[in-house]
Amino acid sequence: MEKIANELKSVKELEDGRIITDVQNVTKVLKSFDAIAIWDFASAAPYSSISVNGETPLDAVFFSGHKFPGGVSSPGVLIIKKYLIQATKPKRIGGGTVFFVNSSEEWFLKEVEHREEGGTADAVGAVRLAMAVKMKRAVGENTIKQLEESISKKVLEKFKAIKNLILLGPVVSENRLPVFSFLIHDPNSQLFFHHNYISVLLNDLFGIQTRAGCMCAGPYAQFLLGIDEDLSKEFVNAIQESANLDRTHLRRQAEYSQQEFLRPGFTRISFPYFFTSHQIDHILQCIQFVSEYAADFLHLYQVNCETGEWHHQNQRVFHGRRWLGHVQFTPNGLKTKPVVVQNAPDFKGCLQIARSLALESVQSLNLSKIPDGRSAISEEFRGLRWFVLPIEIAEVLAGRNVSFGVCVLNPRKYSERSSNLSKQLDNGLHLNERDSNEENACEVVCDDVICLIKCDENSKNEDTTENVGIDESEAEEVKQMEDWNKRVVVNRNVDLSREEERKLEWHVPPLEMYKKVTDVIHQLKMIKNGDKILVCLSGGKDSLSLLHILRHYQQRCNKARSTSFELGAITVDPGSAEYNPRPLIDYCRKLNIDYFYEEQDIIGAAKKTTGLRSICAFCSRMKRGRLAAAAQFHGWNVLAMGQHLDDLAESFFIAAFQNGNLSTMKAQYTTKDGALRVIRPLVMVREKSLRNFAEDKNLPVVAENCPACFNQATERHRIKQLLAQQELIFPDLFNSLRSALKPLLLVDSAHTNEMRNQAVQNIVNRT
């Protein structure tokens, strides 16, 4: 171990600040202590020579095939001495690992390579990797090394001349890869520009692909950024998700933090050895342009606090996204949606356009339209913000006096041949940036059968409430689509015996939840004698729970000989391959209720509609019309929806934030034509209660994975997160919201003007 310490000490004392691993000498030291030498060539394999059986043989080597030029989607490689593998049973049993098997015993292959690789081998990937390795050998490691050193020298010389660029790590060109990590410094604030912003700007202006973040080697990256252990812990406390949040209730998949964008990092760019001198010169000019003009574009970009992602204010949807759902296999061959490809300008043209855009962006600067994100970070963590915000740059350009704090990042500066030294920049810091005002955001409210659209462009000009019913335009569209009409009807068997009735798979809801539902029903007189109620059944937890709750209420009413009503269900299938509610047909047949399954090719019609801005809006409108038309056609007069208290609270904030309205979903109302009543008996019930009931009773919840609703960071989800955060601080939050929303949810009109007047009157009467 003393020898290992001496070897590491000799590496540490290298004057150029690099860490060079001498594979053979380190292996000798390890072998002298009977240690096993396992070498990770993950990043070095595409460029360096690998000698397993050298003067001192290596015990094992592994590397990643996908990091080779041309090695995309190829497998990883493990080279290991056979004597090290002593197990006779494979780690993962699969096809090709078993020699023979009977009912009592199994025998595995003795050939270790086959025994340890169960299942079908990736033959195509292996061939691709073999070609990539062969190409590397054809070029030669020495040639690659010379080309890389030449590129590194050119890049380092250019980077020295870029005044706002801070290079991280050693500044030597020998024995290094042309991979460079850097920050762009803002001289006015003495802060940095966010690494994700720099990466996005290089992409948007020039199509240059870079990476951004803290990469794999987190401790080393923090060392380069000048972050010590204490500061690192402060960052962790700021960006980590609260341990008290209910991930199950929120259906979280990824890590969540309202302050993820505080995470420190840098931008990294790679120059492959096969790049031409002209390509490298162009990329360096583009990086220099971004370092000089990054401030001029910042006010045009918005940051998502929860992900740290930056996007241009006009880039709200991925226009170029291509869906597998657009692909059709037909007798005439493969058909897909045509892609419009614009001709890109050449290198010189890109720079000219970028310069003109920089001038235009400064002239178009409008302080009133730039969100002020300085209050988005809690006061406890404001000192950790190391990057400049759009509002700060805008105020500086407008001539205002802006106060900046001290930047917490102190990137280490390396001299060319001296030992690495830490040099502090004159820096400053201020606050955080908030997500953005999503003025054109299209918010989908997908709960139960009705897919409600909240789209601020339309909401300011049209009646875009969640009303069910058919106006003239909707009636015409529904009529036009009736030709595709498919319908399944399940009729209730009225001749069942009492014993057969008791065997039906109905479930009794928890008393507390049931009482909240019945209180609303009685208070608002939702259900009347002779009503024929159809539950809008999507297969989600909410609508399924509502069906069982209303069935229990019906049984209690029959026993008490009070309100008499009929209960059924209805589903609208929009024709999406990713959503299959057909299992509900058999389920409702087992429950012995009247059930109507309506199929309508809404998705297909949407594809044929020219100028369609939102598939979700179209689908929502069509579903509303189909529900109303089907209910009237079958002679039912009430539609029951499964929206709950969480939905109402979220809709209230969305309406206030996006549309400037004080409104939410109504507890009940009559459609414009007076033919239907719509009721929401769950308006006082929490979502988590419904989820618990559905899971406890193992209700057959149908997954809905419509590709039109795939935007992960929807406004509704952000509001859900916001309310969850606030509920940690104010445990009684939803009781307060329930009380505050009553004047709005008691509105019973489907007409916009009447609805607003009633809401105002309810508020006035309450005060």
Automatic annotation (TrEMBL):
It comes from the Eukaryota. Residues 20-223 form the Aminotransferase class V domain. It holds the Pfam family Aminotran_5. Residues 532-703 form the tRNA(Ile)-lysidine/2-thiocytidine synthase N-terminal domain. Signal peptide: none annotated. This is Aminotran_5 domain-containing protein.
